[in-house]
Write a structure and sequence with these properties.
The chain has 2 domains: about 100 residues, Winged helix-like DNA-binding domain superfamily/Winged helix DNA-binding domain (Arc Repressor Mutant, subunit A); about 100 residues, Four Helix Bundle (Hemerythrin (Met), subunit A) (Up-down Bundle), CATH 1.20.120.530. With about 200 residues, it is mostly helical. It is built from 9 helices and 3 strands. The longest helix has 30 residues.
Length: about 200
Amino acid sequence: MDGALGVTVALLSAASAEQTADPVAIAADASRPRLIEPLGQVVTRHLRDAILEGRLKAGARTRQEAVAQELGTSRIPVREALRQLENEGLVSLVPHSGARVAKFDHGEYTELYRIREELEPLAIAESAPRLTDGDIDTLRGLMLQIERTNDAGVWLDLDRRFHLASYAAAPMPRLLKLIEGFWNSTQQYRRAFYGAISARYDG
């Protein structure tokens, strides 16, 4: 497990245990803004990153007990994370079988890309006039990294970040959330495609 993630999970677990043991602390803390990310979101991000980066492959089984043990937490935030990832189309929850990373489906792939082709031109049209000099510098930096890398995994991550950053100035948060979700859902297809292309050229 990543060291920083382990520290975060440990701190969140400790804070949760302390609040559970002290009802007065819970009441006092309710009036203060929470500065620590909820544990369920930490687990969700950990699993989402593992899927998007290809560390969890399509069809791979994800056991709640194993994830909880790896992250040093209970099964409750893991269960919450898997439900969220199911909503995002990244995992499938099967009764009495557990969770599996979503498998490839040509029909779904085609549908997702057709939706993206409709939404993303709107996002860039709304975003482009509002990009600041700082935004453009960020995009330029990402483009330079894309041009310099020979690693397919790094290229895929940078390409995703570049596109989402180019849309980010659009004053349409619901649209941006939809687009990011569709990018997440298609990332494993893109990874498989570029992996096949790389293997063909390497061979």
